[in-house]
Amino acid sequence: MTGMSLLKHPPCTQRRSASRGARRLTGASLGAAAGIQRYQDLKRRSADSYDFAESELNTLGYYLLRQGELEAAIKIFRLNVEQNPDAYNTFDSLGEGLLALGDTLGAIDSYLKSVELNPANENGFAQATGQGGQQIRAKRKE
Fold this sequence. Notes:
Oligomer: single chain
Number of helices: 8
Mean pLDDT: 76
Low-confidence stretches: 1-13
Strand order of the largest sheet: 1-2
Largest sheet: 2 strands, parallel
Structural class: mainly alpha
Distance between the termini: 53 Å
Strand content: under 5%
């Protein structure tokens, strides 16, 4: 099924993967913007037919990251942060994407937010301190 035919595909009775639908578009040379637009359209028009869990966008973001599409992955991770602002894992994943892109300061900020939301997030803490995030130590002492 091509990305364009997906747009015409009718919803089914089972909840389908929203990230899979968006992934088909991002991988069809239409880019991350088309995938994000598709995700938002599905959420607006077919919320009962698709799974919009935080893990759906994370799956798509990591898929793009593994494909070397760093900018697209960052856009997806940012969308996940926007859609799930209280989920520490969204900020942790954004931090990983930013680090892969070479944005160390942005990654540290994202990891700091992740640890703020979940002080038990060992990955966020390790990544932030490993990248020179001494600020996180001060937050832990508060």
